[in-house]
Design a protein that fits this description.
Distance between the termini: 23 Å
Strand content: 5-15%
Helix content: 25-40%
Number of strands: 8
Number of helices: 8
Shape: globular
Largest sheet: 4 strands, parallel
Order of helices and strands: HHEHEHEHEHEEHEEH
């Protein structure tokens, strides 16, 4: 967001997301190579990314449906001839136990005979060969987040939503006096002055962006 805010023109704005990766690699000397590509939209990020980006260790999905984001990342890696089984996909947005188990079933094996990710709730589900066979598509991990550390839904003895979890996120407001923007993969999470959001949407496009509820 900072590099984009300080960009001199639209072309420099669009390439800021990859310039950041170059600086990150230099700073951490080839370590900590997990992509977080949703700042201006994951689909456009992957479509225009230099080939060397596919050599990074993996990707974290935040504001996009993790099933869609993981499948999109796997397809992108395959197009670039990378072995997806050696890569890492991390889901991280408003997850709970059922969502994590469903994602594990989806990415770490083959769901069989009409079963769905929603059918996996306990260890025995993963031991049922009629339902699932372990056959890793990609290494999968989950950042549990809000609903692990701050989940008090339905805990208010007087009813109401006063105890519902809070989603606290800090984002850059400006850089060198210029407003910063985040588009996100979710229209509901876009941040920045309205006119600047419109400009960024024109530069980066709207591919893959969607409206989705936010845990607040």
């Amino acid at each position: 967001m900072a590099l984009a805010a300080m960009a001199k023109d639209d072309e420099e704005l669009k390439t800021a997301q990859y310039r950041l990766l170059e600086l990150w690699q230099q700073t951490y000397q080839g370590e900590l190579l997990i992509l977080l590509p949703d700042t201006f939209g994951t689909s456009q990020f992957l479509r225009n990314a230099p080939d060397w980006v596919a050599d990074w260790t993996g990707q974290r999905a935040d504001s996009k449906d993790p099933f869609l984001a993981g499948d999109e990342y796997i397809a992108w890696l395959e197009q670039r001839g990378r072995d997806t089984r050696q890569k890492l996909f991390i889901a991280s947005d408003s997850l709970d136990v059922d969502a994590i188990l469903g994602l594990h079933a989806h990415f770490s094996g083959t769901i069989r005979n009409g079963a769905s990710p929603e059918d996996f709730h306990q260890a025995s589900d993963f031991l049922d060969e009629k339902k699932w066979l372990p056959e890793r598509r990609i290494r999968f991990s989950a950042g549990w987040g809000t609903l692990l550390t701050n989940d008090f839904r339905n805990c208010n003895p007087q009813g109401g939503d006063d105890f519902d979890p809070l989603s606290l996120v800090c984002k850059l407001n400006d850089a060198n006096g210029k407003p910063a923007v985040k588009l996100s993969d979710n229209f509901q999470k876009a941040l920045g002055p309205h006119e600047e959001i419109q400009r960024y949407q024109r530069v980066f496009g709207l591919a893959g962006l969607a409206h989705a509820p936010i845990v607040t």
